[in-house]
Design goal:
With 294 residues, the protein is α+β, with helices and mostly antiparallel strands. The protein is built from six helices and 18 strands. This is Phenazine biosynthesis protein PhzF family.
Length: 294
Protein backbone atom coordinates (compact mmCIF):
# COMPACT_ATOMS: atom_id res chain seq x y z
CA UNK A 1 0.00 0.00 0.00
CA UNK A 2 1.45 3.36 -1.05
CA UNK A 3 1.67 6.14 1.52
CA UNK A 4 2.25 9.87 1.22
CA UNK A 5 3.44 12.33 3.85
CA UNK A 6 0.93 15.02 4.75
CA UNK A 7 1.01 18.14 6.89
CA UNK A 8 -1.53 20.67 8.14
CA UNK A 9 -0.39 24.26 8.48
CA UNK A 10 -2.14 27.40 9.69
CA UNK A 11 -1.42 30.16 7.19
CA UNK A 12 -1.20 33.96 7.50
CA UNK A 13 -0.57 33.65 11.22
CA UNK A 14 2.28 33.04 13.68
CA UNK A 15 0.02 31.15 16.13
CA UNK A 16 -1.42 27.65 15.94
CA UNK A 17 -5.21 27.29 15.58
CA UNK A 18 -5.53 30.70 13.98
CA UNK A 19 -5.13 31.72 10.33
CA UNK A 20 -6.31 29.64 7.38
CA UNK A 21 -5.96 25.87 7.63
CA UNK A 22 -4.18 24.19 4.73
CA UNK A 23 -3.44 20.52 4.16
CA UNK A 24 -0.22 19.88 2.20
CA UNK A 25 0.61 16.50 0.66
CA UNK A 26 4.09 15.66 -0.62
CA UNK A 27 3.99 13.62 -3.84
CA UNK A 28 6.81 12.00 -5.86
CA UNK A 29 4.88 12.18 -9.11
CA UNK A 30 1.59 13.52 -10.44
CA UNK A 31 -1.50 11.75 -9.12
CA UNK A 32 -4.62 10.78 -11.03
CA UNK A 33 -6.98 13.77 -11.10
CA UNK A 34 -9.59 11.89 -9.09
CA UNK A 35 -7.00 11.20 -6.38
CA UNK A 36 -6.45 14.95 -6.05
CA UNK A 37 -10.20 15.42 -5.72
CA UNK A 38 -10.68 12.58 -3.24
CA UNK A 39 -7.81 13.62 -0.96
CA UNK A 40 -8.92 17.27 -0.95
CA UNK A 41 -12.45 16.25 -0.02
CA UNK A 42 -11.15 13.93 2.70
CA UNK A 43 -9.22 16.71 4.43
CA UNK A 44 -12.23 18.99 4.24
CA UNK A 45 -10.36 22.33 4.32
CA UNK A 46 -11.03 25.08 1.81
CA UNK A 47 -7.96 23.96 -0.15
CA UNK A 48 -5.36 21.18 -0.22
CA UNK A 49 -1.94 21.68 -1.84
CA UNK A 50 0.13 18.92 -3.43
CA UNK A 51 3.85 19.61 -3.66
CA UNK A 52 7.03 18.13 -5.08
CA UNK A 53 10.50 19.27 -6.09
CA UNK A 54 11.29 18.73 -9.76
CA UNK A 55 14.98 17.87 -10.18
CA UNK A 56 14.68 18.23 -13.96
CA UNK A 57 13.26 21.77 -13.75
CA UNK A 58 14.95 22.77 -10.46
CA UNK A 59 11.73 24.15 -9.05
CA UNK A 60 9.27 23.50 -6.23
CA UNK A 61 5.89 22.76 -7.82
CA UNK A 62 2.48 23.24 -6.21
CA UNK A 63 -1.01 22.22 -7.31
CA UNK A 64 -4.04 23.06 -5.16
CA UNK A 65 -7.63 21.83 -5.15
CA UNK A 66 -10.85 22.64 -3.31
CA UNK A 67 -13.38 20.12 -2.03
CA UNK A 68 -15.57 20.97 -5.03
CA UNK A 69 -13.12 19.58 -7.63
CA UNK A 70 -11.77 23.01 -8.55
CA UNK A 71 -8.06 23.60 -9.14
CA UNK A 72 -6.87 26.84 -7.55
CA UNK A 73 -4.15 29.03 -9.05
CA UNK A 74 -2.51 32.27 -7.94
CA UNK A 75 -0.39 33.33 -4.98
CA UNK A 76 -2.71 32.73 -2.05
CA UNK A 77 -2.70 30.85 1.25
CA UNK A 78 -2.43 27.59 -0.71
CA UNK A 79 1.00 28.63 -2.01
CA UNK A 80 2.22 30.52 1.05
CA UNK A 81 1.52 27.58 3.35
CA UNK A 82 3.31 25.15 1.04
CA UNK A 83 6.43 27.32 0.82
CA UNK A 84 6.48 28.03 4.57
CA UNK A 85 6.19 24.29 5.23
CA UNK A 86 9.17 23.58 2.98
CA UNK A 87 11.25 26.18 4.82
CA UNK A 88 10.18 24.93 8.26
CA UNK A 89 11.10 21.35 7.24
CA UNK A 90 14.38 22.65 5.74
CA UNK A 91 13.70 21.19 2.30
CA UNK A 92 16.21 22.52 -0.23
CA UNK A 93 13.73 23.91 -2.76
CA UNK A 94 15.65 26.90 -4.13
CA UNK A 95 18.94 25.28 -5.20
CA UNK A 96 20.29 26.57 -8.49
CA UNK A 97 17.88 29.50 -8.67
CA UNK A 98 20.28 32.36 -7.93
CA UNK A 99 19.31 35.38 -5.85
CA UNK A 100 15.60 35.53 -6.80
CA UNK A 101 13.75 32.45 -5.49
CA UNK A 102 10.58 31.32 -7.21
CA UNK A 103 8.10 28.46 -7.30
CA UNK A 104 5.46 27.17 -9.71
CA UNK A 105 1.74 27.09 -8.97
CA UNK A 106 0.40 24.85 -11.71
CA UNK A 107 1.79 26.65 -14.82
CA UNK A 108 2.54 30.06 -13.28
CA UNK A 109 5.93 31.23 -12.02
CA UNK A 110 5.64 33.12 -8.72
CA UNK A 111 8.63 35.21 -7.52
CA UNK A 112 9.26 35.05 -3.76
CA UNK A 113 11.01 37.06 -1.08
CA UNK A 114 12.16 35.08 1.96
CA UNK A 115 13.00 36.65 5.32
CA UNK A 116 12.65 35.62 8.96
CA UNK A 117 10.21 36.65 11.64
CA UNK A 118 11.37 35.20 14.94
CA UNK A 119 11.56 31.43 14.56
CA UNK A 120 9.21 31.41 11.59
CA UNK A 121 9.84 32.06 7.90
CA UNK A 122 8.24 35.19 6.50
CA UNK A 123 7.41 34.72 2.82
CA UNK A 124 6.43 37.33 0.25
CA UNK A 125 4.70 36.28 -2.97
CA UNK A 126 4.66 38.67 -5.90
CA UNK A 127 1.42 39.03 -7.79
CA UNK A 128 0.96 40.90 -11.06
CA UNK A 129 -0.21 44.56 -11.08
CA UNK A 130 -3.88 44.97 -10.25
CA UNK A 131 -6.31 45.51 -13.11
CA UNK A 132 -9.84 46.83 -12.69
CA UNK A 133 -11.94 44.61 -14.93
CA UNK A 134 -15.47 46.01 -14.60
CA UNK A 135 -18.08 47.44 -12.23
CA UNK A 136 -20.92 45.27 -10.94
CA UNK A 137 -24.33 46.74 -9.95
CA UNK A 138 -24.58 47.48 -6.23
CA UNK A 139 -28.22 46.40 -6.03
CA UNK A 140 -27.42 42.90 -7.23
CA UNK A 141 -24.54 42.33 -4.79
CA UNK A 142 -26.38 43.90 -1.84
CA UNK A 143 -29.14 41.33 -2.28
CA UNK A 144 -26.60 38.49 -2.59
CA UNK A 145 -24.95 39.33 0.74
CA UNK A 146 -28.02 40.33 2.76
CA UNK A 147 -27.24 44.04 3.04
CA UNK A 148 -28.78 47.23 1.65
CA UNK A 149 -27.41 49.45 -1.09
CA UNK A 150 -26.68 52.15 1.50
CA UNK A 151 -24.72 49.61 3.59
CA UNK A 152 -22.26 49.34 0.69
CA UNK A 153 -21.57 53.06 0.49
CA UNK A 154 -17.96 53.44 1.63
CA UNK A 155 -16.31 56.65 0.41
CA UNK A 156 -18.38 56.43 -2.77
CA UNK A 157 -16.27 53.52 -4.05
CA UNK A 158 -17.76 51.25 -6.71
CA UNK A 159 -18.09 47.48 -6.50
CA UNK A 160 -15.45 46.36 -8.99
CA UNK A 161 -13.93 43.13 -10.24
CA UNK A 162 -10.18 43.46 -9.71
CA UNK A 163 -7.55 41.00 -10.90
CA UNK A 164 -3.89 40.34 -10.20
CA UNK A 165 -3.92 36.64 -11.09
CA UNK A 166 -7.47 35.71 -10.08
CA UNK A 167 -10.43 38.03 -10.69
CA UNK A 168 -12.30 38.69 -7.44
CA UNK A 169 -15.11 41.13 -6.63
CA UNK A 170 -14.14 43.98 -4.28
CA UNK A 171 -17.18 44.97 -2.20
CA UNK A 172 -16.82 48.04 0.05
CA UNK A 173 -18.91 47.93 3.25
CA UNK A 174 -19.69 51.03 5.31
CA UNK A 175 -18.50 49.73 8.71
CA UNK A 176 -17.48 46.68 10.76
CA UNK A 177 -20.94 46.11 12.21
CA UNK A 178 -22.43 45.76 8.74
CA UNK A 179 -19.51 43.60 7.64
CA UNK A 180 -20.34 41.26 10.52
CA UNK A 181 -24.03 41.10 9.50
CA UNK A 182 -23.36 40.09 5.89
CA UNK A 183 -24.71 36.66 4.91
CA UNK A 184 -23.79 34.78 1.75
CA UNK A 185 -26.70 33.86 -0.49
CA UNK A 186 -24.92 31.07 -2.32
CA UNK A 187 -27.24 30.79 -5.31
CA UNK A 188 -27.26 34.55 -5.98
CA UNK A 189 -23.48 34.81 -5.62
CA UNK A 190 -22.99 31.88 -7.99
CA UNK A 191 -25.29 33.55 -10.53
CA UNK A 192 -23.45 36.87 -10.26
CA UNK A 193 -20.07 35.16 -10.51
CA UNK A 194 -21.07 33.34 -13.69
CA UNK A 195 -22.70 36.39 -15.24
CA UNK A 196 -19.95 38.94 -14.57
CA UNK A 197 -16.87 36.69 -14.61
CA UNK A 198 -15.39 36.80 -11.12
CA UNK A 199 -14.49 34.07 -8.64
CA UNK A 200 -14.91 35.18 -5.02
CA UNK A 201 -16.65 38.04 -3.28
CA UNK A 202 -14.27 40.06 -1.02
CA UNK A 203 -16.19 42.26 1.41
CA UNK A 204 -14.04 44.87 3.11
CA UNK A 205 -14.23 47.95 5.28
CA UNK A 206 -11.59 50.48 6.23
CA UNK A 207 -13.50 51.20 9.44
CA UNK A 208 -11.18 49.62 12.04
CA UNK A 209 -10.09 51.15 15.38
CA UNK A 210 -6.58 49.72 15.04
CA UNK A 211 -4.74 52.09 12.73
CA UNK A 212 -2.27 49.35 11.80
CA UNK A 213 -5.12 47.54 10.00
CA UNK A 214 -5.69 48.86 6.48
CA UNK A 215 -8.92 46.90 6.05
CA UNK A 216 -10.95 44.12 7.60
CA UNK A 217 -12.35 41.61 5.11
CA UNK A 218 -14.58 38.58 4.59
CA UNK A 219 -14.47 36.24 1.59
CA UNK A 220 -17.32 34.20 0.08
CA UNK A 221 -16.73 31.88 -2.88
CA UNK A 222 -19.55 29.31 -3.09
CA UNK A 223 -18.85 28.65 -6.77
CA UNK A 224 -15.74 26.63 -5.86
CA UNK A 225 -17.06 25.24 -2.61
CA UNK A 226 -15.76 27.85 -0.14
CA UNK A 227 -18.51 29.18 2.15
CA UNK A 228 -16.19 31.60 3.98
CA UNK A 229 -12.40 31.66 3.81
CA UNK A 230 -10.34 32.83 6.83
CA UNK A 231 -7.52 34.27 4.66
CA UNK A 232 -7.43 34.86 0.91
CA UNK A 233 -4.13 36.06 -0.53
CA UNK A 234 -5.45 36.05 -4.10
CA UNK A 235 -8.10 38.60 -3.01
CA UNK A 236 -5.94 40.65 -0.62
CA UNK A 237 -3.54 41.49 -3.45
CA UNK A 238 -6.28 42.87 -5.71
CA UNK A 239 -7.74 44.81 -2.77
CA UNK A 240 -4.40 46.50 -2.09
CA UNK A 241 -4.03 47.31 -5.78
CA UNK A 242 -7.58 48.66 -5.92
CA UNK A 243 -7.10 50.90 -2.87
CA UNK A 244 -3.88 52.25 -4.38
CA UNK A 245 -5.69 53.07 -7.64
CA UNK A 246 -8.39 54.85 -5.60
CA UNK A 247 -5.67 56.98 -3.96
CA UNK A 248 -6.40 55.53 -0.51
CA UNK A 249 -2.87 54.12 -0.02
CA UNK A 250 0.56 54.79 -1.49
CA UNK A 251 2.93 52.45 -3.27
CA UNK A 252 5.99 51.00 -1.53
CA UNK A 253 4.33 51.02 1.89
CA UNK A 254 3.48 47.98 4.05
CA UNK A 255 -0.13 47.42 5.13
CA UNK A 256 -2.08 44.73 6.98
CA UNK A 257 -5.45 43.22 6.10
CA UNK A 258 -7.38 41.41 8.83
CA UNK A 259 -9.56 38.48 7.76
CA UNK A 260 -11.17 35.49 9.46
CA UNK A 261 -12.52 37.17 12.61
CA UNK A 262 -16.06 36.05 11.79
CA UNK A 263 -15.09 32.36 11.58
CA UNK A 264 -12.89 32.54 14.70
CA UNK A 265 -9.68 32.13 12.68
CA UNK A 266 -8.14 35.62 12.61
CA UNK A 267 -5.50 36.05 9.92
CA UNK A 268 -3.12 38.87 9.10
CA UNK A 269 -2.21 39.35 5.43
CA UNK A 270 0.62 41.79 4.68
CA UNK A 271 0.38 43.69 1.39
CA UNK A 272 2.57 46.16 -0.48
CA UNK A 273 1.87 47.70 -3.89
CA UNK A 274 4.95 48.31 -6.05
CA UNK A 275 5.37 49.53 -9.62
CA UNK A 276 5.45 46.06 -11.16
CA UNK A 277 3.01 44.19 -8.94
CA UNK A 278 1.68 43.53 -5.45
CA UNK A 279 3.54 41.70 -2.68
CA UNK A 280 1.38 39.51 -0.46
CA UNK A 281 3.23 38.18 2.58
CA UNK A 282 2.88 36.24 5.81
CA UNK A 283 3.96 33.37 8.01
CA UNK A 284 2.67 29.86 8.74
CA UNK A 285 2.94 27.28 11.51
CA UNK A 286 2.73 23.47 11.37
CA UNK A 287 -0.03 21.91 13.48
CA UNK A 288 -0.16 18.29 12.24
CA UNK A 289 1.71 15.74 10.16
CA UNK A 290 1.25 12.09 9.31
CA UNK A 291 0.80 9.42 6.65
CA UNK A 292 -1.90 9.28 4.01
CA UNK A 293 -2.83 5.92 2.44
CA UNK A 294 -3.66 5.75 -1.26
Amino acid sequence: MKTLDYYVVDVFTDSRYKGNQLSVVYIDEELDINQYYDISREFGYSETSFVNYSTTENVFKVRSFTQAKHEVIGAGHNLLGAVCLALLKKWDIFKGQGTQPWVMIKDDKIPLKITGQGDLPYVGMKQRPAQIVRTVPTELIAQAIGLSVDDLNLNGWDINIVKTEVAHLMVPVKNRELLKKAISNKSLLKEASAKFGFEGCYLFTTDHPDTSILAEARFFNPGIGIDEDPATGTAAGPLAGYLEKLGHINKDADFQILQGEHVNQPSIIHVKVVNDGVWVSGSSVIVMEGKLYL
